[in-house]
Design brief:
single chain; alpha/beta; Rossmann fold; 2 domains; 5-stranded parallel beta sheet; 17% strand; elongated; binds oxalic acid
Length: 318
């Protein structure tokens, strides 16, 4: 089976060698260096260029080299009607959980404040909440949300999760659907967004959401920039409703140099590094999906395209 590979990342060559090493029975060809020797039956991609996938009439599967697949449903991409497989990789899952923990600790233990004091050589102690007093709410209980909840629970946080459909997780208070959205927010001192970006979740980190959080809450977004309405975040910080935020993702990346968030001391910015894809372990997961397709089995972690194609509700999930 011939597999086309498209990846705009700096480590694309490493990915290609890992894929070839993990799945030697497949022939990987880098886009656009295709020849006509045999049809392309699979694609391994990250943010493929507009129209690329539509030029592959024999495609049987699209494997994505990351957790998010939202961009496949963006203008001009038009994924063909074949299974789409997202990357669910234990290494990335652990990376996300440790990022979420670090982001919570950054605010809880006031590391930003002490960094600023250090710059002024100021020795001033401030009290902080103990771990068991911090109520964390995780939006999205997929692999990354579940792993984050488990790590935070093990450290001693009071953890709840919210998902579209009812879920149960040991040690985690689980909320689901529209009816339980507000009670979930009302008990979230730290709100962590790990949701997929769909028409139903775009803009979900909005003024209405911030107003429903306890006063002085912290927001962490490690999902997609488009979940957040940036102007609403800045207004909520200015009004003192929110105490701070940690943002790893932005609707425009890299974040433009003149963006006001760069200068906001209440916001910690990281450059989309919460859960970088890992070539060795990621290639092994993709190889498993390709083998499933070749054997006529359904691969794990199939994307439900209806989630991405539905019309946007009037208000984001609230
Ligand atoms: C992903 C990402 O979706 O890194 O995996 O954004």
């Amino acid at each position: 089976m011939r597999v086309v590979f498209y990846c705009p990342w700096a480590n694309a060559e490493t990915w290609l060698s890992e894929l070839r090493a993990c799945a030697p029975e497949f022939t990987f060809v880098a886009w656009p260096e295709l020849d006509d020797s045999a049809p392309i039956e699979a694609a391994v991609v990250w943010r493929p260029p507009a129209g690329m996938l539509r030029q592959l009439p024999n495609l049987r599967v699209v494997c994505v080299m990351g957790a998010g697949v939202d961009y496949l449903f963006g203008p001009g991409i038009e994924p063909p009607d074949v299974p789409i497989v997202r990357l669910v990789d234990p290494v990335m899952t652990e990376r996300m959980a440790s990022y979420v923990l670090a982001a919570i600790l950054y605010h809880q233990r006031q590391l930003g404040r002490y960094r600023a004091q250090q710059a002024q050589r100021v020795w001033r102690q401030s009290m902080h909440k103990d771990t068991s007093e911090v109520r964390v709410g995780i939006m999205g209980l997929g692999a990354m949300g579940r792993a984050s909840a488990a790590l935070l629970g093990a450290v001693g946080y009071d953890v709840a999760g919210w998902s579209r459909r009812p879920t149960s997780l040991a040690g985690v208070r689980c909320y689901a659907g529209r009816d339980q959205w507000r009670p979930f927010l009302a008990r979230s001192d730290v709100l962590v967004c790990l949701l997929p970006l769909t028409p139903a979740t775009r803009g979900i980190l909005s003024r209405a959401t911030f107003d429903a959080l306890p006063e002085g809450a912290v927001v962490i977004n490690a999902a997609r920039g488009e979940h957040l309405i940036e102007a609403d975040l800045i207004a909520a910080l200015d009004a003192g409703r929110l105490a701070g935020a940690v943002l790893d993702v932005f609707s425009i990346e890299p974040l433009p140099e003149d963006h006001p968030l760069w200068r906001d001391p209440r916001v910690l910015i990281t450059p989309h590094v919460a859960s970088l894809s890992n070539p060795a372990s990621g290639a092994a997961q993709i190889a498993a999906a390709l083998r499933a397709i070749r054997a006529g089995r359904a691969p794990a972690h199939l994307v439900d395209r209806d989630d991405y194609l539905q019309a946007a509700p009037r208000e984001a999930s609230v």
